[in-house]
Amino acid sequence: MDFDSYISETYKQEFLQEQQDSEKVLKEKIDKLKQYIEQAHYVVIYTGAGISTSTGIPDYRGSNDIWIKRKNNDQL
């Protein structure tokens, strides 16, 4: 095996291991969150700006925001 092939194969194996480790850590975090939610009486999710617009909820700021549309009697 030449040096380039060795490096490529080693890198590939390390990259795949990192991916598996990342997936394992993510799954552990998801399981922990699931446990917290199941034990909670109430759940509040606080998100940052922009999360709503990606789901189709109108923006409240900007050149085409909900207040401009309302002022112009546009469809919301």
Overall pLDDT level = 77
Contiguous runs where pLDDT drops below 50 for at least 5 residues: none
Helix content: 55-70%
Overall shape = elongated
Radius of gyration: 23 Å
> What is the succession of H and E elements?
HH
Q: How many domains in all?
A: 1
Q: What does the main sheet amount to?
A: none
* Strand segment tally: 0
Number of helices: 2
Q: How much of the residues is beta strand, in percent?
A: under 5%
Distance between the termini: 64 Å
Structural class: mainly alpha
Task: Produce the secondary structure layout.
Blueprint: H1 3-39, H2 66-71
What would you say this structure looks like, in words?
By secondary structure, the protein is mainly alpha-helical. The protein has one domain (18-71). It has helices spanning 3-39, 66-71. It is elongated. The termini are far apart. The mean pLDDT is 77.
In short:
The chain has two helices and no strands.
Task: Tag the structure with descriptive keywords.
76 residues; mainly alpha
